Amino acid sequence: MRRFDAPTANRYAAAMEPTKRAAGDLAPPEPHLHVALVFPEIPGNSGNVGRTCLAVGARLHLIEPLGFSLADRFLKRAGLDYWVHVDLVVWKDWPTFEAALPGLGRPFAFTAEARRELWQVEFPPAPQGTVLLFGREGGGLPPEIRQAYRGDAVRIPMRPGTPVRSLNLSTAVGIGVYAALRGGHG
Questions:
Q1: What is the number of structural domains in the chain?
Q2: Which end is more exposed in the chain, N or C (fewer Cβ atoms within 10 Å of the end residue's Cβ)?
Q3: Residue 149 in contact with residue 107, Cβ under 8 Å?
C-alpha cells in the first residue's frame, strides 16, 4: 500500500510504483506500530529502516525535507527488492505529520538527551497505536520537537564513559521497534 500527500505524489510517482494487487485482494490491516523518520539524510539508513518496518508490519513515515530522492540507488540497494512492498507514507513537512499524529498513536521521541531509558518504557498494547519518532542522522530530532515530546522521550542506553555519541539511525530504529514489539505489539 502506497500513500503520499498530493504534492509529494507527483514528485515521486515515477520513482515509486505502487504495489500491484490481484483483483479481490484485501488491503493489509492498519498497522499499530509506526516509525517516523524526521528529515532523514542518508538513503541507506532509510532503506534499512524500510526493510525492518516491512519485516514487522510497521508503517514507515518519512517527513520532508529528505536529504535524498526516493529514486536514490542507495535507498533501493539498502531496501533490496523489498522496498516496493514497504508501507510508506511521505509527509510534506513536520506540521502536516504532527496534525495526523493523534490518529496514529502515542508518540515516543528517541533522543540521547532523554532521561528515561528504553527499558523503562511501557509501550501501549495493540491495538493502541505507537509511533516511534527518530531524527536526522546529523543532529537527531530538532530542539522544538524534543521539547514538545519531552514527556515521552526515550534514550537507548550506552555504556557509561563510551566515546560513542549516538548509534546509527537504522540500528536505533531496530532496537526501538523490537522493544515496542516486545512491549505489546508482537
A1: 1
A2: C
A3: yes
